[in-house]
Design a protein that fits this description.
By secondary structure, the chain is α+β, with helices and mostly antiparallel strands. It has helices spanning about 1-15, 20-30, 65-75, 105-120, 140-155, and strands at about 55-60, 85-90, 125-130, 135, 160-165, 170-175, 185-195, 195-200, 210-215, 220-225, 230-235, 250-255, 260-265. Strands 2-1-3-4 form a 4-stranded mixed β-sheet, sandwiched between helices. A hairpin with a 2-residue loop joins strand 5 and strand 6.
Length: about 270
């Protein structure tokens, strides 16, 4: 599974534009200890891990006739307390007659990496991945709720608190320490740059004539640091994010390349 992490990081950092890589390098060079959050009024990353949200990732496609109900449900799930949502448009249905305007091969690679990590090989749309450990049909609300409860139970002893805040021209990602008895003490810190919403009018393919709104579609996903079980703060150049094409940020603490999500936080920067 360590090789899966290297594959995932390589795909993301090498195939996406060079500015994202420079951003990640700056972030890695600025890691420091947590301990100065009280002056900003922001919540400390050392708050109880019980408050750590569940991450829902929806793999969807504008060319998939089964996806619009899942996309609509996803827009409702983003309002659920204790949940962070990200949608990933895959590119493998583009041959059906409509090129998904939000799709990328990297999004498809992330979905395949999850299938490889789970060992079940299941890749489909609409697929919901819950906290990196389980998957269900993204249009099945009952199954999603059950998967959320399962993830909460399975990961409750390894969750790590995270928070994000602005400080001048910097974005600070605060990460807490591993729970005392946790056996997961090393993970990659990822930063997702997403749009709050994106509305697309589809003129060809299975969804021809539909106008669909996508919630939190990811535009970039990049590794920005490593966490080794100790409280850590990453300082990243916030101004560089405005050129990527998103208006909200999500930080993820993920074991290996496509393993459990130990922590997540969302931040919406003010427009320039």
């Amino acid at each position: 599974m360590l090789s899966a992490m290297r594959i995932a990081i390589s795909r993301t950092s090498l195939l996406r534009f060079s500015g994202a890589l420079a951003f990640a390098i700056l972030g890695l060079g600025a890691a420091a200890s947590v301990g100065h959050t009280e002056d900003t009024g922001a919540a400390s990353a050392t708050d109880a891990a019980d408050d750590t949200p569940i991450l829902l990732e929806l793999f969807t496609s504008q060319g998939c006739s089964s996806c619009p109900p899942a996309d609509a449900l996803f827009d409702e799930l983003r309002k659920k307390p204790g949940v962070i949502t990200l949608s990933f448009a895959v590119d493998y249905w583009n041959y059906l007659g409509w090129h998904d305007t939000l799709s990328s091969p990297e999004n498809s690679d992330r979905q395949r990496d999850y299938a490889m990590a789970r060992g079940d090989g299941k890749v489909y749309t609409p697929q919901m991945v819950v906290d990196g450990i389980d998957h269900v049909n993204g249009a099945n609300e009952a199954a999603i709720e059950m998967a959320i409860r399962t993830a909460e139970r399975r990961l409750k002893d390894v969750k790590v608190p995270m928070s994000m805040r602005a400080e001048g021209d910097s974005l600070l990602v605060d990460i807490g320490s591993a729970p005392e008895n946790s056996d997961m003490r090393q993970a990659t810190v990822w930063l997702a740059v997403a749009k709050d919403k994106e509305t697309v009018k589809i003129t060809r393919g299975e969804n021809r004539g539909e106008t669909i709104t996508y919630s939190h579609p990811v535009r970039e996903l990049m590794p920005v640091g490593m966490w080794k079980g100790e409280p850590t703060t990453l300082r990243l150049p916030l101004k560089d994010l405005h050129g990527i094409g998103g208006d909200c940020l999500v930080s993820l603490l993920q074991v290996e390349g496509a393993g459990p999500i130990l922590g997540a936080a969302m931040f919406e920067p003010k427009p320039e």
